[in-house]
Structures are given as structure tokens and as C-alpha cells.
Amino acid sequence: MAIRRRTDPEEGRDAVRAWAADPAAAKRAVLGPAVRHTLELFAEDFPGGSVELRVPPHGAVQAIAGMHHHRGTPPAVVETDAATWLELVTGRLTWDDARASGRITASGERSDLSSMLPLPGPRRDAREATAEPGPAGECA
Question: I need a surface site. Which of 75, 86, 101, 103 has the fewest CB within 10 A?
Fold first, then answer.
């Protein structure tokens, strides 16, 4: 089943770049599209419905193949805040460090996302946003 996109991919990439350039200054207008875009990418890369990934108040997706359920919340739930999620998908924070510091709640089978993160596209976008310009004005 295809993921129904709510976020324009270019708007999402721009939001990830804006967040990466200055995470402390990122407001809801940047966080929302960045989170929704990366949640949609995650659900595309790991289709299924056995894990619900929540990043309130910006979005939630069901992903990861496994135990099929018919109604309500899947058997596994992962929840975190926007900053933690964006740090995870861009590779600025590891799953283990986020869990150890209590920045993620994860319960149920298949709720360990360590092997699935970071996501290549957002990681590249974040690196490009913070790259120092080279001698010809190009990114290094």
C-alpha cells in the first residue's frame, strides 16, 4: 500500500535543511513539515503496520512489517519529540543514546529502530545544510 503524502517532498527537504542549519531556532513552521516529511519517508522505506511511530503534535505513521492488526493501536509504539526524531533521522543522535537518555519511549515487538536510522535522504540534507562552502562557493 502506498503512503499518502501530506507533505510536499521539496517543502519537507527544505524544512529538514532549515532545521539542520539552526535547530535551536526552528519553530513549528519548520518542525512540522520536517517531521511529517521524515515520518512519511520512514513509512515508505519500512512499510507495514506493526509499529506506530508518534512525534506529537506533528504526526504519526504506522510502519514496519510484522504482526497484522485490524483495529486501534498496533502492538508496538514508539514516541518521541520533534527534535529527537530529527536528530535520529539525520544521524546526529543514535537510537541507543536517545533511549539511554529517556528521549524515546518504545514498547512492544519491533520497537527497536536502531537498524533503520538514520535515513539516508534526511542525513544527506542535514549534512548539506551545515557544510562549509568550498573555494568556488560550492559545498565541500
Answer: 101
Contact status, residue 58 vs residue 29, Cβ threshold 8 Å: no
pLDDT in tens, 15-63: 999 999 999 999 999 999 999 999 999 999 999 988 999 999 999 999 9
Q: For residues 89 and 135, what is the distance between their CA atoms, to the nearest angstrom?
A: 30
Taking only the tens place, the pLDDT of each residue in 105-122 is 999 988 999 999 999 999
- Residue partners of 1: CB distance under 8 A and separation at least 6: 47
Distance separating alpha carbons of residues 60 and 36, to the nearest angstrom: 8
- Cα separation, 126 vs 128, whole angstroms: 5
123/116 Cα distance (integer angstroms): 12
